[in-house]
Amino acid sequence: MLSGGRANAVHAHTNMAEPMELLCWGGDWDLPSVHTDSLIVLAYAKFSGAKLAVKSIDWTWRTITASVPQLHWEGSTVTEPAQILNFLRKQRFNADYELTAKQGADTMAYIALLEEKLRPALLHTFWVDAENYVNLTRPWFTSHSPFPLNFFVPGRQASLALSRILLTKAESPLLNITEVEGKIYSEAKECLNLLSHRLGNFHFFFGDTPTSLDAFVFGHIAPLIKAPLPSGQLQKHLNQLENLCQFCNTILKNYFTDAAAEKRMDCSLTATHDPVDANLQKLTQLVNKESNLIEKMDDNLRSSPQHRPHRHETKPSALASERNSPLLSKH
Amino acid sequence: MSLAAEAFVSQIAAAEPWPENATLYQPLKEDQILLSDSASSLAVQTFLRMCGLPVLVSCRANAEYMSPSGKVPFIHVGNQVVSELGPIVQFTKAKGHSLSDGLDDVQRAEMKAYMELVNNMLLTAELYIQWCDDHTATEISRPRYSSPYSWPLNHILAYQKQWEVRRKMNAIGWSGKSLEQVYEDVSQCCQALSQRLGTQPYFFSKQPTELDALVFGHLFTILTTQLTNDELAEKVKSYTNLLSFCHRIEQTYFKEHERESQSGSSRHSKGSLP
Lengths: 331, 274
Known about the structure:
The complex is a heterodimer. Chain A is mainly α. Chain A has twelve helices and four strands. Chain A has helices at residues 36-48, 62-65, 81-90, 101-128, 130-143, 153-169, 177-199, 212-226, 233-240, 242-271, 278-303, 311-330, and strands at residues 20-24, 52-56, 70-73, 76-79. Chain B is 61% helix and 6% strand. Classes of the chains: A mainly alpha, B mainly alpha. Chain A: Keywords: Membrane, Mitochondrion, Mitochondrion outer membrane, Protein transport, Transport. Chain A: Residues 300-331 are annotated as: Disordered.
């Protein structure tokens, strides 16, 4: 077992025969993936410097056959985020090597807290709440599954989510989902408050470098922040916790913008089927970089303590600036 | 209970002081109670002792059905019935007794996180070993669970309970785990607890909190209960500071009571620690 020395655990093992392949759900709403578990693995891979070949299972039969996320490497397959993280650690991609023993124990405890308190409410928000399910989740998963699976996949996920909530949270008198709702949402809000207290004013949960706990928290709250939910009381509560929103945006900006910008570039390049002038390609890339820089500067200005504009004003302008940059890159 | 009803109940709770005849109900100690229920019951008893609140332990064969939420143990205080450690902690807080008042927000977050860790890992592992491992289920769990009932009810109830627990394990993804993996999880959980405890007397230095009660309940029960093999107890024994933690709490809260009151009503089923 390659437990990896603490000193050199961060440096990526670049002389591997083939890259590791990760199967996960596709991305939307500015996220690399809409699925919590896939996001956890993607975030951890970025933090630890592991190079993963990400294959999205959208529009393939794997939407119903595979349990996502799945990591393939040299014939072995690993599923479940915790197992995948263990596997990556054994391959010397360790983002936790700087943690003390107590911090490692804290990580386990907080992950258990997330699983017990936050996940049922997340499942409910996306899969059981009628308005969200009909208007957002089901159309998204239906449009990202091939025919004829698009009839089965969302329904199956929804019934799995409902049964999980009922079996773990509903005790025998409370067999009705509506009575459990109040309980799971209040527990989830409490959990978010606890996380916010723990994070405080730091960038990440343990100092200045992200660790596996940051990956887990990011995976759980990022879809909640970014998804355009029609009825989202939990989302409203989360938006009030500014440090968690900042945490999520920081990770997206620092670790995932390159991927998002590449995707946008790919889309803009493939849209023009005729052979594109090499100069035009270079110009597009330059414009993309400029717009990214402008976004970063904007964000820095906005987050500086002296000039903190009112919450409602920042939201529309942030959306506006993000809408402008795709328009810029298309030219 | 809806949130409004809970708030109403806690208002009523705050009005009366703790009565002398508060009772805790659990399944029959010698014949019926299983590892996980015994652990939860001991955790509640320890918590109440730490708060200095007197409670009588009463064993009933149908305790599970009497409970408002279907889980044991539950306490009957005045004219209210509250089950499970979480609501009981809130209930005693409404009455003015609390162990975690001295903690700040970050510590409280840590305490809740560690309590969830114990519930998530240790309790689930106990349930898995009892009901999903065929050997243990056949030898120990089913006979014990159904001992107060006659044929054919005992078979029906035992299989029903087993089916329920297996469904739950399926839903949270534990059904694919092997027994070795479960033991490994228990070991990791104990390692995390051991590292958090370090050399301190309690998890949050000087004063015990509900986390200490919960951890003691589970670890003591694991160490003193006879299963088909001793592997679970061995995993816990390998962490010496957890062993001394259990000894210390047993000495402080249970042995003194034994010397004061001559009745053995609150002794644990298999005797004290080796």
